[in-house]
Amino acid sequence: MKRIQVRTSPTTPNPGQCLNTRKLVPANHLEATTHDGRPGWSTRGDDPQFMVDLDPNGVDPGWYLVNARFHVQRGRLAMPSFYPDYGSGFSDATRITMLDPPDGQLLSVVCFHAHVPRLRFDPSVTSCDFSLDGFSLTRISRVHAARRMLRGIREASHISRAAVAQMVMKAFFREGAGAFGGWLYGIYLKRGKASGEYANWIDVFDRLRDDELERLSGSVGSLPSKPTISIVMPVYNTPAEWLKRCIDSVRAQTYPHWQLCIADDASPNRDVRPLLKKFAASDPRIKLVFRESNGHISEASNSALQVATGDYIALLDHDDELPPHALHLVARTLAENPDLKLVYSDEDKIDEHGQRFAPFFKPDWNPDLLRSQNYICHLGVYSRALVQSVGGFRKGFEGSQDYDLALRCIEQLKPEEIGHIPHVLYHWRAISGSTALAMGEKNYAAEAGRRALEEHLARTGRAGTAQVQNGGYRVQYPVPAPQPKVSLIIPTRDRVDLLRMCIGSILAKTDYANYEVVIVDNQSAEPETLAYFREVQHDSRVRVLPYDAPFNYSLINNFAVSQCDGAIVGLVNNDIEVIHADWLSEMVSQAIRPGIGAVGAMLYYPDDTIQHAGVVVGLGGVAGHAYLSQPRGYPGQMWRASLVQNFSAVTAACLLVRRSVFDEVGGLDEGLQVAFNDVDFCLRIRARGYLNLWTPHAELYHHESASRGYEDTPEKIERFSREIAFVKHRWGDSLLSDPAYNPNLTLSSHHFELALEPRVSLRAALGLNG
Question: What residues does each domain of the chain span?
Answer without folding.
Answer: 4-204, 222-465, 486-736
